[in-house]
Specification:
Helix content is 62%, strand content 10%. By secondary structure, it is α+β, with helices and mostly antiparallel strands. It has a 4-stranded antiparallel sheet. A 4-stranded antiparallel sheet has the order 2-7-4-5, with no helix packed on it. The chain is extended. The two termini are 29 Å apart.
Length: 337
């Protein structure tokens, strides 16, 4: 149920953002049907907001944004803040394969926050020094633009970022020389955060290692007895997926469209006596073998990397390698027993 509510919420959020963009540009004329759509959306968002408070039992960052959007619409209506719900849409679709690199980038930014902060402090220090110097040099010549350090900072920002709007320019030769040197300095200084992120992002990718190697596959007990040809074929079919902690992976009643192998992390099978599965274990095969829907929900206990194998690929492998079918049947029977 929660999965379907989230999917509806995600679609409505994206449609509302699209409506806000079109409405602001007057591309589409005002229409009562659009107003009804917005009203119905807010009713749904309000109900969803209340449900999430009861489910999460804490006031999270996303709930704060949702509260601001709802409160503004109900009580104030000064601005259309629906665009803020894009954060909620991102949280809904964060497990989508297309967003995995984005998740890695955000994690990289967080991990390198101190280095990035340090680089920005350095940039701000240079900005203050340059603004002070250009103020001393140009204040008598251009008092309107360089009469104070604060006024000079606008020119300093445009110079350090090498934007150069041209609305303010130094008149003295010394001011022009200082500005030129600062521009060259700005190119290097603003490249520093990019270099920090690029290096850390590469390391993060290497650490997560989305590429599934033969060594990884052969270390999984399920595949340990298969010949090298089979391992190579499996390597081509497995897809890596990463889930954060406490995230639903399988919902009871869903169609059994794939099985999962745990590369690292732990998951919990939500049955009467919950079962914990860890590295090398696999789940989701029973529904494929019995051709039934999922009989239990499974959630991640911590960040977990899974290797998914589609139903079609698994059936093809079981037909070609009966040992794989026998192993899956055995484990499935043991779990039921």
């Amino acid at each position: 149920m929660i999965k379907y509510i989230n999917n509806i919420a995600g679609i409505l959020i994206l449609l509302n953002i699209f409506d806000q963009i079109l409405s602001s540009s007057k591309i589409i004329p005002e229409n009562i049907y659009f107003d009804i759509f917005v009203l119905c959306s807010y009713v749904f968002f309000g109900i969803e907001f209340i449900l999430r408070i009861f489910i999460e039992r804490r006031f999270s960052f996303l709930l704060v944004f949702d509260f601001l959007v709802l409160a503004n619409y109900i009580f104030f209506g000064f601005y259309d803040l629906r665009i803020l719900r894009i954060f909620r849409a991102y949280s809904i679709y964060s497990n989508h394969k297309m967003l995995l690199p984005t998740n890695t980038l955000l994690r990289t930014v967080y991990n390198q926050r101190l280095a990035l902060l340090g680089s920005q402090i350095m940039v701000f220090s240079v900005l203050l020094i340059f603004s002070t110097l250009i103020h001393f040099i140009e204040r008598d010549i251009n008092p309107e633009y360089f009469g104070s350090i604060l006024n000079s900072m606008w020119f300093g920002i445009a110079t350090l970022t090498t934007v150069g709007y041209g609305d303010v320019t130094p008149s003295s030769p010394l001011g022009q020389v200082l500005t030129s040197l600062t521009m060259f300095l700005g190119i290097g200084m603003f490249a520093l955060p990019a270099a920090i992120l690029a290096s850390a992002y590469y390391e993060e990718i290497q650490k997560r290692n989305f590429l599934i190697t033969m060594e990884t596959i052969s270390s999984i007990p399920l595949f340990s007895m298969l010949p090298i040809g089979a391992l190579s074929k499996i390597n081509d079919k497995l897809v890596a997926e990463i889930y954060p902690a406490k995230r639903k992976i399988i919902e009871k009643g869903d169609d059994a469209d794939c099985m999962y192998i745990i590369e690292f992390g732990t998951v919990q099978v939500e049955i009467e006596s919950p079962v914990t599965l860890g590295q090398g274990d696999y789940f989701g095969e029973k529904g494929i073998l019995s051709k039934e829907v999922r009989n239990a929900s499974i959630s991640s206990l911590e960040e977990v990397k899974l290797l998914s194998l589609s139903k079609e690929d698994l059936e093809e492998l079981m037909e070609e390698y009966p040992h794989l079918f026998e192993e899956l049947e055995k484990v499935s029977s043991d779990r039921m027993g």
